[in-house]
Amino acid sequence: MISLETWLAFVAASIVLVVIPGPTITLVISYALAHGKRSAWATVPGVALGDFTALALSLAGLGALLATSALAFTILKFAGAAYLLYLGIRLWRSPVAPIEAEVAGIPASRSILLHLYVVTALNPKGILFFLAFLPQFLRADMPAAPQVAVLGGTFLVIATANAALYALLAGQMQAWLRGVGARRALNRVSGAMLVVLGGAMALARRSD
Question: Which of 31, 53, 70, 71 is in Cβ range 3.0-4.6 Å of 121 for a Cys bridge?
Answer without folding.
Answer: 53
